Amino acid sequence: MLRETTSQKRIIVWNALGSGVYALSSFLLLIIVTRICGSAEAGVFSIGYAIAQLMLTVGVFESTTFFATDAENKFSYEQFLAFKMTTCIAMVIASVVYTSSFGYDDHKAAVAYSLCAFRLLEAFSQFWYSSFQKLERLDIAGFSTVWRSILSIIVFACLLAMTKDIAISMIVTTFAGIAWEALYDIPRLNRIKRIGKPDFSPKPLVALFVSCLPLFISSFLSAYLSNVCKYAIDAVGTDQMQTIFNILFMPSFVINLFMIFFIRPTLTKLALLWLHRDIKPFVAILAKLMLLVAATTVGVCGICAVIGIPILEVFYGVNLDGCLIPLLVIMLGGGLNSAANVFYNGMVVIRAQNGVVIGYLVAIAIATIVAEPLVASQGIMGAAIAYVVASLAVAVSFALVFSFVFALKLKPANK
């Protein structure tokens, strides 16, 4: 039975749970693959997952936050649904082209394609998520995310244990997710907001494409930036090295998890504050988010320094001797990346999407130059250093661009 109304407490709780389980899902999937199939196969899974995450940005087209913060209702739900269907078709085409370009053998390619299919479902589900968010029902979106993620993890683990085949297990898991959306997400959204047939009118589709293009480019570049070190390991390292780097990278999701938890509930409020040029509370929210980034990063680094390596070894069953310093360096990079994410969302709200691209281009240029040589000479530590350097570059760039555009857009109001 659907609650007709909700409370802020319920929204916060289910949004937190949804964000938490979603962030932990990749962590758990890698544990499952490592435990059942071994570290070499986990390396194949990791690079396939990295490719799928990059392709996810094509399907999402960074339109979720844009639609949820469309305070002026320039676009209808039907227009956004049509746009989402179009970007998902583009994701299918991009996945085939991009994965084929690596020249992988049949097994590695099949794993990558199956993971792209799994993330395609996630891309389309963002329509339901952004719609619930815009209707101020993040509690429903969070509830759905929790149980869809749990269902996916259980189905994947059971099938992988029986078949030892990542591709087959992931394809069946994708169909389980489709069933959940058909039975839960669609009926509940229709009870709150009746959605008509997709509206493929060219004008709003083009307008959405133009509006979201800078955000898509930035999200694509962001995902590519996160993968640069993994591509470097794929090129000059081993599957086992790929597994170790991804294991060390996992705790950084804790920082991102906390920031997702804190940022998402503020987006609609930030959009309304900016619409009415209520600057003091707008800046105060961003300042609080930055303090939370700093506190979370320090806390996570402290915990990782004491018990991080032993816990990761217990979970994954992989020897991580000598990996403490790389782990802490990666955590620092995660904190810098979360700080950049605060400025990123700020730029989305003030509609300064073009400025986002600058920071990512600077960071990717730096990471591309340093990643392979560092991995070749210093292995895991080299990959960690490349990641933190790139994260610092994007955080500083975003801060500078946001400050400049923010000041520029306020000038007419001050005259």
Written account of the structure:
With about 425 residues, this protein is mainly alpha-helical. It is about 85% helix and about 0% strand. It has helices at about 10-35, 40-60, 65-70, 75-100, 105-135, 140-165, 165-190, 200-235, 240-250, 250-275, 280-315, 325-350, 355-380, 380-415. Helix 2 runs antiparallel to helix 8 (about 200-235), helix 5 (about 105-135) packs antiparallel against helix 6 and helix 5 (about 105-135) runs parallel beside helix 7. The radius of gyration is 21 Å and the shape is globular. About 50% of the residues are buried. The model has no long low-confidence stretch (mean pLDDT about 90).
Topology (elements, then pairings):
Blueprint: H1 8-37, H2 39-60, H3 64-68, H4 77-100, H5 106-134, H6 138-163, H7 166-192, H8 202-236, H9 239-249, H10 252-275, H11 279-316, H12 324-349, H13 353-378, H14 380-414
Brief descriptors of the model:
415 residues, mainly alpha
Helix/strand/pairing category: mainly alpha
Bin the helical content: over 70%
Kindly state the mean pLDDT as a whole number? 88
Which of globular, elongated, flat, extended, rod-shaped describes the shape?
globular
Distance between the termini: 53 Å
Strand content: under 5%
**Main sheet record:** none
Tell me the total number of β-strands: 0
Outline:
With 415 residues, the chain is mainly alpha-helical.
